[in-house]
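thread from #wetlab-drylab

HS: before we spend reagent money on co-crystallization trials with pyridoxal-5'-phosphate, can we at least see a predicted complex? here's what I'd submit
DV: go for it
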Amino acid sequence: MNNFKSKEVFEKSCKLMPGGVNSPVRAYRSVGLVPPIVKKAAGSRIIDIDGNEYIDYVCSWGPMILGHAHDDVINAIKAAAENGTSYGAPTENEFILAELISEAVPSMEMLRLVSSGTEAAMSAIRAARGYTGRDLIVKFEGCYHGHSDGLLVKAGSGALTAGVPDSAGVPKDYSRNTIVAVYNDIEGLKEIFKSFGNNIAAVIIEPVAANMGLVLPDYDFLGQLRSLTQSYGSLLIFDEVITGFRVSFGGAQGLYGIKPDLTVLGKIIGGGMPVGAYGGRKEIMEKVAPLGPVYQAGTLSGNPVAVAAGISTLNTIKNTADFYSRLDCLGEALQKAYVEAAARYNVEIRINRIGSLLSVFFNNNNVIDYNSAVKSDLKKFKKYFSAMLDRGIYIFSEL
Ligand SMILES: *Cc1c(COP(=O)(O)O)cnc(C)c1O
């Protein structure tokens, strides 16, 4: 595939933007390639400025569940834009999107719209701290909750020590308030709670972890997590930025039947426009300004064009019969094809899948947490990635 134009634009971009991009994974550093510079997209395909067409498995990292440039969504965006792109004042559509979300995810009795998943997760943590009057939070190694200071934290030297910054520029004083636990390790979590439980404001988790490749929760891990947090008066925050409206219309919590205290959403609820949301039990959300003392605000929160895209996306899903069972069938077919191809060429792989979320690991062991995920063969992954791209299949550039 020729990529002359992409190369040229990327080289110019690299002089002006860090890594040539506005979000690091797009730079293809981990696979050592020049990223295709996208010109446009429709349905399942994206086309780069050199005219190469790709089947898009990335879907903008989650939001484009209906495919690119879906007619209904585009029409909703056009209609909204014609009436003005921002008012800084309330609109009826914000209520309609909030109602759609709350009906689909009933644990979100009250919610607030923001402009990104990062903002939503950061604000949910603040609400949890404001409600409980406690400072400590627990997150899991390999889970991603956006790039706010307190969440860019990795494990300290021992299981029961405070976290340390996972990025330059994060003060140690911030990371001290974050404890990093091991995904699927309920015993480790119990130890953490034994030592710090009465000071833990919240545990934040991706109920299905999709940022270290895909890692599924063990049977009853989430159930035990729910009762553990409850017994210490700590809140449980589900970060469903990926899983929300992806694994079911009610998210992972609907699928597994577990009710968190707070939920964080993003990606799909904006239908490709910048929208995030956080919400949960009413008495917690009543702590948020202007009702309560927890401050959080946003000039473009509930933006009319973004909200229109979100409403249209959620309604389209809602009104499509068998939406999720069809996604599951497609995911299953893809999994089968991977398994057959790997067997044919005698390549050891492990696949984790739930519905349309699927990860292929070049790994001899089951992937159940961060440690097992990073033991995957990166060399093989690079080769696979570049061969896929050559064949016009655009996949995730990182685990
Ligand atoms: C993408 C993601 C975020 C961050 O959302 P942004 O809109 O990129 O800020 C947070 N949590 C999870 C689980 C995500 O996948």
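DV: The chain has two domains: 4-69+321-394, 71-318.
HS: ok that's useful, forwarding to the group
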